[in-house]
Amino acid sequence: MSAVTEHAEQDEHAGHHAHGGEEPHVPKDSYFIKVALWLALLTALETSTYWIHLGGFATPALLIMMTIKFFMIVMIFMHLKFDNKLFSLMFYIGLGLAIFVYCVALSTFQFFAR
Amino acid sequence: MADIAVHEAVTSHDDHGAAGHGSITGISNNKLAMWLFLGSECLLFGGLISTYMLYRGRHGSGVGPAQLFDIPLTSVSSFVLLMSSLTMVMAVNSAKRKDDRNTNLWLTVTALLGSLFVGAQVYEFTSFYHEGVGFTTSLFSSSFFTLTGFHGVHVSIGVIMLLAMVAIISRNKVAGDKAEVVEMIGLYWHFVDVVWVVIFTLVYLIPA
Questions:
Q1: Closest CA to B120 of B66, B158, B74, B161
Q2: Which residue, among B111, B199, B124, B187, has the nearest Cα to B155 in the 3D structure?
Q3: Contacts with B168 (C-beta within 8 Å, 6 or more apart), sequence order
Q4: ipTM
């Protein structure tokens, strides 16, 4: 019986490390609710630019809000902030390549358009 | 009894080995593969967004983005998808607490919110078609339908994955670490949400 108890303790211990060497510290639900409220606020601000005309300021403001929302979701909801750095590397390589492809495609077409 | 304990210990060790302890890096191979997949998905959507940005002005004298988009509707559906990310986080946290009842509840709510988003997209596509904008009408419409359609398919696949997970958890037939499996579906779901954050701003809100 003690062997079973000991195994259960080992199992519990192993479970805590199942996500990758070190178990990341993950915040409580209330923290995620606060983040979601901030995201909702940012979305409301983004949408308001459709009715409130900001002129030339609109596009940079929208891009900044989009970037903040993007990284809030990736870092907090997807746990990249709390998780192993190798996961971040895998994702950011893909993201960096995507931005590179986007820039190359746009500049190439702009070049040939001239 | 000792034999049973040893056997269970061996099988348990194998399970956890798959989740990280047995890998060279010391981290879960499954999770690493999921992040690699999401990195490659960035390239797919990067290409589609680039194509749309290039062609969004190519609609000739036909209907363009300014006349076509229903921003209030899209804002509501964006909000719905954003909130589904919150419910997904709640599901992942419940799974980590080994609380199957709440895990299933939050997964179901996430699937419902995702379905609502897909429904809004189907409504949007139908109304565009009735206004005379089909897939082959112009370069703008082709690139728009391809980009948002691909995203819609990703959301639909996510909904199927969520519902399948609910069924698997209900029957207690999860292979390996349950929390990790839920977390993987969560990663995919958040990625779909994050792509929409970019699409909503670049396609709908920034004027052509």
A1: B74
A2: B111
A3: B174
A4: 0.82
The one-letter amino acid code at B150 reads F
Q: Which one-letter amino acid corresponds to residue B96?
A: K
Q: Can you identify the CATH homologous superfamily of domain B37-205?
A: Cytochrome c oxidase, subunit III, four-helix bundle (1.20.120.80)
Residue A108 has phi, psi (to 5 degrees) of -65, -50
- Please name the residue that has the structure tokens 């929208």: A62
At A3, give phi and psi (nearest 5°).
Answer: -65, -40
A75 closest CA partner among A85, A65, A64 = A85
Q: What is the DSSP letter of A55?
A: G
DSSP character at residue A56: G
Identity of the residue in B71, B78, B93 whose CB atom sits nearest the CB atom of A26: B93
> One digit per residue, pLDDT tens: chain B, 208 residues?
444 444 444 444 444 444 555 567 678 888 889 999 999 999 999 989 988 988 888 877 777 777 788 899 999 999 999 999 999 999 999 999 888 899 999 999 999 999 999 999 999 999 999 888 888 888 889 999 999 999 999 999 999 999 999 999 998 888 878 888 999 999 999 999 999 999 999 999 986 5
Reduced to 3 states (helix: H, G, I; strand: E, B; else coil), residue B25 is coil
CB contact under 8 A, A14 and B13: yes
Which of 44-103 (A) contact B at CB < 8 A? 46-47, 49-50, 58-59, 62-63, 65-66, 69-70, 73-74, 77-79, 84, 86-87, 90-95, 97-99, 101-102
Does the model's pTM come out above 0.80?
yes
Q: What angle do CA B156, B92, B181 make, to 5 degrees?
A: 70
Chain-chain contact of A19 with B20 (C-beta, under 8 angstroms)? yes
Q: Where are the domains of chain B?
A: 37-205
- Domain ranges across chain A: 28-82, 84-114
Angle, nearest 10°, between helix axes B29-55 and B139-170? 160
Q: Does A18 contact B5 at a Cβ distance shorter than 8 Å? A: no
Reference B147, options B96, B207, B198; nearest CA is: B198
